[in-house]
Design brief:
Order of helices and strands: HHHHH
Largest sheet: none
Number of strands: 0
Number of domains: 1
Helix content: 55-70%
Distance between the termini: 19 Å
Structural class: mainly alpha
Shape: globular
Oligomer: single chain
Strand content: under 5%
Amino acid sequence: MVSLSPILRDWEGIFVFTGMDQVAGGGWDHVLAAMQIPDLNIEDFLRTALDEGTFLLLYGYIVQKLPLCQQLMDEQILIGYLLNWITNAKPM
């Protein structure tokens, strides 16, 4: 199983080292642009992110996919992911 913690640390590094923590609105667009999903299928990636409690990765996935929704069904799929994550999330 691939650990997603290094990806999360990379995101935090991009956010801080580029000064995005000082930008109005948070500057998350730069972090999301740098988001790279490891060599896993998307279901494995999302399941691993949920299992490891890396909720920032899950948030990034939703924020990245939401603008790509072209139909109501696309948005309903994302809402289904969110409901599943909320139901199965385990506090760390």
